[in-house]
Each structure stands twice: as C-alpha cells, then as structure tokens.
Amino acid sequence: MPEQVTPEIILLAALEIPGSYERAAYLDQACGNDHALREEIESLIAAHFANESFMTRTADPLWFEARSERAGDMIGRYKLHRQIGEGGFGTVFLAEQSRPVNRRVALKVIKPGMDSKEIIARFEAERQALALMDHEHIAKVHDAGTTEGGRPYFVMELVDGETVTHFCARTQLDIPARVELFNDVCAAVQHAHQKGIIHRDLKPSNILVSSRDGKAVVKVIDFGIAKAIGMENTGKTIFTQFGRMIGTPQYMSPEQAETNALAVDTRSDIYSLGVILYELLTGTTPLDGDQLRNAAHAEVQRLIRDETPPKPSVRLAEASARSGAVKPAHPVPPRALRGDLDWIVLKALEKDPARRYESAGALAEDLLRYLQHKPVEARPPSLSYLMLRFTRRHRGPVVAGAALMMTLILGAAGTSIGMKRALDANAEVMKTNRELDRQKLALVDYKERLAGLLESNQKMLGEIRRMGTDKAQLPAEFEALRTENQALLDKVKNEVANQERYAEEIERLQLSNARMEKLLVESKDIDTAVEWVRAGLFGDRITSLTANGRGQFYLDGKLVPFPTLLKAFAAPPDDDAQGQAPPRWLKVSLPAGAKPTDAVFHFRLKQLAAAADQIGLRHELFPQQEKMR
Amino acid sequence: MQDCGDNVTRILNAAAGGDRQAAEDLIPLVYGELRRLAAWHLGREAEAHTLQATALVHEAYLKLSPGEPQWEGRRHFFHAAGEAMRRILIDRARHRKAARHGGGLQRTGFAEDAITIPSVRDDEMLAIHEILDRFARIEPRKAEVVKLRYFVGMTLEETAEALGISTPTAKRDWIYARAWLFRELKRDH
Q1: Which of A1, A281, A288, A368 is the most buried if burial means most Cβ atoms within 10 Å?
Q2: What is the pLDDT of residues B112-168, one digit of tens each?
C-alpha cells in the first residue's frame, strides 16, 4: 500500500505542478467528491503564493547577534564615538582614527546575515577603482575590514549633513536651486561612471547636503558599498536574504528588480537619479513606498516593471488637490514642472534602459539647458513609440485602422502634388529664417564677449598709464604689446561694425520674409494659404498657436484666419506617411487667466482639438472625459 | 549550576519514561538553561560575537543528554527547546515593542537585550505566536516543525532528525503549516 494520502501530501504535490489547469485536474482526481478538502487545499495554495517572504527568516541561520557595536568600542584602529545612523544594511558610527592620521570618519558596520568573507573579497576587488575616484561631490571610502565578531565594516569620509530631500524641504528651495543641487549629484555619478564604478543604491539617504562656508554642498556616499555587499544579485538579495524587504525598492530600476538581474549597468543609476529628481520636484517618489513595502515579491517586480508613473506636474497637482490647505504647500507650483522638466524626468525614468539618457552627464546637460531656457533634448514619448505599444496590446483593430489611415494619407498626398513646388520654396524660406535666427543669437553672444574683452583691455591700459608715466620703468616689451593690442582692437572694432551691418541685413530680410508670408497666409487663394500655414504648423514637432482675447489664432505672430487653420489641420503632416513620424504636439497658448472653456474660445478650440485628434496630433486642450466625444 | 543541569537530566529521563507532567516541567528548565548558556557566551566579549539559536540548542542538548545515541529523551528535549526558544524570542519581541511605544528601555537583566535581530520581524513573530497554539491542537507535529524551523532556525534535515521523522515529511509539514498560518492570519485581520 502506498502511504496514506494526507492533505499536506496533496498540497505539496499540487504546488509542484506549474500550470493552473494541470493543477486543477490533479485536484479533481486527488480530492474526488470531498468538497471541503478541495476548498481547504485551494485556500492553502492561495495562501502559499500570497506572500513569498512570510516566515522565510528561518532560511537565515544567523538568528542571534550577540552584541552590537556601541560607543567606546574599538574596531580595528577606529574608536567609535556615537551612532549617527541606521540603515537597511548597517549601522553608521561617528568614529575617530588615530593612525596614521588623526581624523574623524564615518564607520558603517554591516548587519548580520551576510557572508563577510565574500563582502571583503568583493570590496578588495573594487578597491583599486574606488581609489581612482576623486570628486568634490563624492565621499571617499577609506578602508574596509572585519570586526572581531566577524562582521564587515566600511570606513568613509565623514559627511556631517542631512539628506538632500530633508534639506530641500527644510529650506523651501525653489526649482532652479533644486535642479542645480541635483546637477552636482549627476556630476558625481558621471565621474564615478567614468572610473567604472556603478553606485547601484542611489537614494536620498545616500545623498547628503552639508554647509561649507555658508554654501550648501552635496555629497554622494556609499559608492562601491552596494557592489561589495552583493547588490548586483539585486532582487534576490533584497527580498530573500533579509526575509522581508529592507532595501528601498522605490529607487530600484526595473532591471535591478529582476531576480536574475544580469543587465545592471550605469543606466540603472540614471533611473535612480530620475526617481530622486522626481522626488525633489514633487515631494513623492514615482511608485508609492508603502505600497511596495506591503506587496509580495512578484507584485513588487511587476509594479517596478510595468507601472508608469504620472508626469511630475500631474502628481504634484494631484497631491496639492488632495492635501488642500491642511499641509504646508510644497513650494513648487505644478505649472512650473509642466513641459521640459516633466519630459526630462520621464526620460530618466524610462523602463527600457536604452531609452534613458545615455549618461548622468547627458541628464545634467539637459537640466542645464532647462536652467538656461534653451530647448531640451527630452521630448514627449514619440507617436510611433506609443503606437508600437498600443499595437502590441490591440493587434487586430490597429491593422484595420492603419489601412484606413494609409488611404487618408495617400489621398492627402494626391491633392498636394500640385503644390509641391510652392511648398519646397516655402520650406526653403522657413529654413533660412531659422538659420538667420540662430546666427543673430550667435552674434549677440559674440558681441557680449567682445564687450567684456574690450572693457578689461581698457582697464589694463588705464592701469599701465597710471603707473607708467615714466616709460623707462616699463619693460620695452610692454610698449610692443600695447601697439599690437591697439592694432587688434581696431581690427575687432572694424569687424564688429561689419557684423552689425550684416545683422541689419538679416533683419531686413526677415522682415520682408514675414511680410511676404503674411500676404500669402491672408491671401484669397485659400489653397496656397493652407499650404503655407501647414508648412509653418508642422515644421516643428511642436505646433504652437497663440490665441488673442477675441479668439483669433496666431502662428509665429501671424494672424491665421480660422477657416484656413481648420483646413490646414484637415490632413496629417506630410512626412508622417513614412511611419517613422517624429512625435507631434499641439500647444495653444491662451491669454493670461483665460480657460479653454471660456465662451470665446470653446467652440473653436473644440473644433481644433477634434481636428488634431483626427490627424494624431496630441494636445492637452481638454481633460480626457471630453476629448473623445 | 551543576545541579540545575542534573535536574533537567532527571526530568528528561522521567519524560522519556512516559511521565507527561515531566515533559511539561521540562520547558521552563530548558528555557533557563538556554538563557544561562546565552549569557555565558555574551559575557565573553572578545570572541564569538554571533550566536546562533540552533547552535545554542544543540549545545544545551549535548550538555544535558546522557550521550546515548538512541536516547528516548531526545524528542522531548527538542520539543521543550523549541517551546523555550519561542518564549525567549516572544518575551524579547514584546519587551522591545513596549520599549518602542513606551519610551525608555528598562533593563530587565535579560542577556538577550543585547541581542539584535531586525525588529521588522517582531510583528510577524508575535502574530504567529498568537495562533500557533490553536494550530498545535489541530496539527501537533506540524506545530513542532514550526517551532524548530521558525523559532530555533533549524534546517529541514535538523528538524526531521530532532523529531524523528523523514525529511520529506518535515518539508510537507512545513509547507502546509506556513500556508495554514498565513491564511489564518489574513482571516483574523
């Protein structure tokens, strides 16, 4: 006789069957007509999978830590003064080193439950690279070793500061200041990446701000520690070795959250940086920390992998709407994040590493462009990308839709063939205009630099005259230099005059261009007008229109009659037919204080929105519930 | 000290002889022995700063058993040790919880105060403790497995050996107990 079939035998056998269909078939057979047993086993199966970390602590044989380190203890050549912090992986002490130099350091003792030999071996392997790091915003790791109790410890430069999030909240820092502070963090991370070191555990508690000479200085700590304690086997380490989760999953990239994470590289740090920037701007992390902490392992992975966070501006608007007047307001209005900052943050937070910024430096540069009011690199997700994601979900209907769209596009191409030449000419003028704009800007730059040079030159000349009334006291070289300088100056002045003439020409040309365009746009020949307007509308990926208080629309400062405008929107932009269309957005600026629902705009904006929807132009004219109607 | 150990041995032998009361009396004695052993280890600061519950229990066993391989008291000892270790850990978790909520930490003289384990485990441990007795009434052997696996930290093989069952049985018991306890915990909340 085989052994008696008990509920626990059925349970384990059922759990070992991977497919739910096969499992049900087995239960049919094993439980027969015993419905109570069947129910019991099924509820136990559900419980088994509900929380993978439940009671898993037993897998760790190190139950007891005899005694933790405390103030007064000596660890190696370091004397512990007091505990200054406690994190998921260890306890941090303020310690004093007496040999070979007397200095105060931060000493971090790693919590029990990790293989100290392995940690120290990994640290030694990384040591050479760590020594190469030398950056004002990176706290140095001096030393590592094992306590007498066999626990690994790390000795680091002491940073007496608060976390970057606390600092920003306490000092109510404005956005540009926050972004500047964050850029220093990017610079630090970029430096480390260039030395081949990935942080792997970037989060606010590892970014400290202290004050030096009254100036806030940011420092990234714990570089090289995460790797030493084996965080490259990420997901696994975080979840099972500690039983419940003690890491900070809200800063963890999707590829890090995978249990067999092989693909962790510098771009994982970029993701974490994105989360931190998100938090600095909105006061919350993209994924809710509490939700992650309470979720089972598989659910955490799913959230990190699939959950797309709202744009920072949207999150902030939601948060301030919820908290009302109860909580002291975050010093940042949602409006300030809309646009560039939204896109920069979301680009850093892309789930696919290849779509993120390629380096921390690139992220910093884009933020710098934002600070300098220059066009940023980050863009809303492209239409083709969104369409790709959409097609994956709804294959059938999309194929039908695409066929319809192709017909529309072919139709549009047919009508416009006659206008081809006019259009080409138009595009040419547009391009020239943009080029001229760019040159004008460069000229202004150039002139400013020259003015600065001239000023310092004059100052020096004055200085020389003052001290050198007796020419004999000055070296002969001086006189030669002065003459040469004068010649150079004359030449430069001449050049500037030329440039100015050139600038005048440019301006005249632009004026006449504009006049010509105005005539064209307002011409009675509506087809020509429409083509001109379309070239202006779709020349950039973002179509910007401005409305005045009477509901009239302007394109690049030129009034466009509404029927012409609508007709221009009747067909998709011509280059979209390639299927590789750049992302397109429609932005309409209304006069200050005006709302799209105001009577004077409402009807026309609705028509515009509908036309934009038709040709795949995205916009934020009306909230979602109205958009599709 | 020595007569304490003798006392335990005497009661163990009585329990092995089928004395039910002796088996119950055993628990506080093993409890005391485990705490004494822990305190002794913790007193020697220079070495062995880590202490495993499993090692502690095995050490107590070596000290108390007469050294016969087929000794009948063996199962009773591990039964008592599992229960004793559970009480030690629960006392400490409660103490720590009270300290967290009630401000200052009072010294109780427990050597285990100096012991640290991540306190996030306390809530789970206390919750399991609450329903373990109920489980023990329905499934006594599986509850024993939980005590040795969860509270003492034994491996499946060690647990099987201590309870005189096969390793596959210990595994099935453990899987079943874990699912059952989790289901009941969720049901209670």
Answers
A1: A281
A2: 444 444 445 677 888 898 899 999 999 999 999 999 888 887 888 888 988 889 999
Which one of the listed residues A201, A222, A340, A342 is annotated catalytic? Answer: A201
Cα separation, A296 vs A291, in Å, equals 10
Task: List, in order, residues 6 or more apart from A59 with CB less than 8 Å away.
Answer: A240, A243
Is residue A219 over pLDDT 80? yes
Q: Is A408 exposed, middle or buried (0-12, 13-18, 19+ CB in 10 A)?
A: middle
Percent of chain A's residues with pLDDT above 90: 13
With a cut of 60, say whether residue A381 has pLDDT above it. no
Percent of chain B with pLDDT strictly greater than 90: 18
Cα distance between residue A174 and residue A330, in whole Å: 10
Q: Are strands A64-65 and A103-110 parallel, antiparallel or unpaired?
A: unpaired
Return mean pLDDT, chain A: 73
Q: Is A72 within 8 Å of A92 (Cβ atoms)?
A: no
Q: How far apart are CA A509 and CA A516, in angstroms?
A: 11
B7, B60 in Cβ contact below 8 A? no
Q: Which residues of chain A make contact with B47, given a CB cutoff of 8 A?
A: 148
Q: Which residues contact A479 (CB under 8 A, 6 or more apart)?
A: A471
| Token couple for A119 | 């940690």
B116 touches chain A (CB under 8 A): yes
What global pTM score does this model have? Answer: 0.45
Q: What percent of chain B has pLDDT over 70?
A: 67
Q: How far apart are CA A305 and CA A345, in angstroms?
A: 17
CA distance B69 to A544: 88
CA angle A103, B49, B37 (to 5 degrees): 150
Contact yes or no for B175 and A11 at CB 8 A: yes
Interface test with A, best of B47, B50, B120 (most A CBs within 10 A): B50
- 3-state secondary structure at position A209: strand
Query: What average pLDDT does the segment B9-34 reach?
Result: 75
* pLDDT over 70 at A485, yes or no: no
Half-sphere CA count of A596, side-chain side, radius 13 A: 16
Q: Fill in the DSSP letter of residue A252.
A: -
Strand order in the sheet with A215-220: A162-163, A207-212, A215-220
Query: Tokens 């260890």 appear where?
Result: A90
For chain B, positions 121-140, list CB contacts with chain A under 8 A: 121, 124, 128
Annotated catalytic, A201? yes
Under DSSP, the state recorded for A238 is: I
Confidence label for B49 from pLDDT (cuts 50, 70 and 90):
very low
Whether residue A226 contacts residue A114, with contact meaning beta carbons closer than 8 Å, is answered with: no
Q: What is the pLDDT of residues B165-182, one digit of tens each?
A: 999 999 999 999 999 999
What's the CA angle centered on A245, arms A89 and A197, to 5 degrees? 50
Looking at the DSSP bridge assignments, the partners of residue A65 are B50
Q: Which residue type sits at A478?
A: F
Beta strands A74-75 and A585-589, pairing class: unpaired
pLDDT, tens only, A354-371: 889 999 999 999 999 888
For chain A, helix (H) and strand (E) counts, in that order, are 23, 15
